[in-house]
Design brief:
27% of the residues lie in helices and 25% in strands. It is an alpha/beta fold and 304 residues long. The strands form two sheets. A seven-stranded parallel β-sheet has the order 3-2-4-1-5-6-7, sandwiched between helices. The chain is globular and about 55 Å long. The relative contact order is 0.15. The model has no long low-confidence stretch (mean pLDDT 87). Belongs to the SIMIBI class G3E GTPase family. ZNG1 subfamily.
Length: 304
C-alpha cells in the first residue's frame, strides 16, 4: 500500500521569509532522497517567487487572489492536477502573506484527498522586527498575524540578527502567550529540519473568518517598467513610501546595468540582488488602503 503524501503548509505575514524557508525545505527534501512538489499562491497577477523554484520541481501556481478566500475553489483543482500528474513524494504549499492558514488546511483535509495526503502541520515565519513594530499594523492585519502564529505547528522567529539580544526574552514571552508550539529563532529561515519529525497539528477550532479581500482592505499593484530607471531616484522613492506598504518585490531595470535587479522590500528595509539573466520587469506592491493610481504614476515618472 502506498503511503500518503506528507503536506507542509508555509504561513507567515508578508515579507517574513516564507520563500526562503521554501527553498531551504526543498533542498532538505532533495538531500533526503525525496522529490517535493510546490503549490505557490501569490496575491498579484504575475509570479515573482516562482523564479526561486528549481525547474525540476513540480510547480502549481495560484495567482491574483488569496488562496484562503477568493480562489479557494481553484486550490482543490490544482491539488487534483498535481496528484494526477504525480511524480512527487512531498507537497509544500506556500500561502500568500495575507492568507489565513486554517482555511487552506480545510481544503487539504477534504474527503477528496483523505486517502492521498497526510497533513503534517503549519510552519509559520515571523519577522522579528515586524512583530516589534506590530502597532503600525491595522487591527485586522494584526489579528491575522496573531492567528498565523496561534495555529502554527512550528514558529520560526526570523531575522534575529536584526534585534537586540536584550529584547529576545520579552518577544519570546509575548509569542508564548499566543502559541504553545515550539518557537525556533532563525536567520534566513534556517533550521534543523529534523524538527519536522516532532511537529504536530494543533486544534484549529476558533479560527476567525477574517478575509484578506475584505477586512484587510488589501491593494495589490503589479507594475511593469517600460524603461530603465535611475537607481538613486528609485531608492529615494522607496524611502518615502507609505507605512501601509507591507511588501514589494520584483525585477527593476536600473540604468547602466545589464540585467534587472531583484528588489525586495518589507517593513522599511529594501534589499537588492543582481541577476545574471534578463527577467521580466514586473514589480509587485502589496499594502492596505493604498492610492494605487498615485503609486503607479510615481513609478512611471521614474522611468522617464
Amino acid at each position: 500500500m502506498n503511503q500518503n503524501i506528507p503536506v507542509y503548509l508555509l504561513s507567515g505575514f508578508l515579507g517574513s521569509g516564507k520563500t526562503t524557508l521554501l527553498k531551504n525545505l526543498i533542498q532538505y527534501e532533495k538531500k533526503s532522497g525525496r522529490k517535493p512538489a510546490v503549490l505557490m499562491n501569490e496575491a498579484g497577477k504575475v509570479s515573482i517567487d516562482s523564479e526561486e523554484v528549481d525547474s525540476d520541481i513540480p510547480l502549481a501556481e495560484l495567482l491574483d487572489g488569496c488562496i484562503c478566500c477568493t480562489i479557494q475553489d481553484k486550490l482543490e483543482s490544482q491539488l487534483q492536477q498535481l496528484l494526477f500528474d504525480g511524480g512527487f513524494d512531498t507537497l509544500i504549499i506556500e500561502t500568500t502573506g495575507v492568507a489565513h492558514p486554517v482555511e487552506v488546511v480545510d481544503s487539504v483535509l477534504s474527503p477528496l484527498f483523505a486517502d492521498r495526503f497526510e497533513f503534517k502541520g503549519i510552519l509559520t515565519t515571523v519577522d522579528v522586527m515586524q512583530w516589534e513594530n506590530r502597532d503600525n499594523l491595522s487591527v485586522q492585519a494584526l489579528q491575522l498575524l496573531r492567528e498565523q502564529i496561534r495555529f502554527s505547528s512550528l514558529v520560526l522567529l526570523n531575522k534575529m540578527d536584526l534585534i537586540s539580544e536584550s529584547r529576545i526574552p520579552f518577544i519570546l514571552n509575548e509569542l508564548q502567550t499566543i502559541t504553545s508550539s515550539k518557537i525556533i529563532m532563525t536567520q534566513h529561515a534556517k533550521i534543523n529540519f529534523a524538527e519536522l519529525k516532532n511537529i504536530q497539528t494543533v486544534d484549529y477550532a476558533g479560527a476567525s473568518n477574517i478575509r484578506a479581500d475584505k477586512e484587510l482592505n488589501l491593494n495589490v499593484l503589479v507594475h511593469t517598467f517600460s524603461d530603465s530607471v535611475e537607481r538613486t531616484l528609485f531608492e529615494d522613492w522607496m524611502r518615502e513610501v507609505s507605512s501601509t506598504v507591507y511588501r514589494m518585490k520584483g525585477f527593476v531595470p536600473f540604468k547602466n546595468e545589464k540585467y534587472p535587479s531583484l528588489v525586495q522590500y518589507s517593513y522599511g528595509m529594501p534589499l537588492y540582488f543582481e541577476q545574471d539573466m534578463k527577467m521580466p520587469a514586473n514589480f509587485v506592491i502589496i499594502g492596505e488602503n493604498l492610492n494605487v493610481e498615485h503609486i503607479r504614476k510615481e513609478l512611471e515618472r521614474l522611468a522617464l
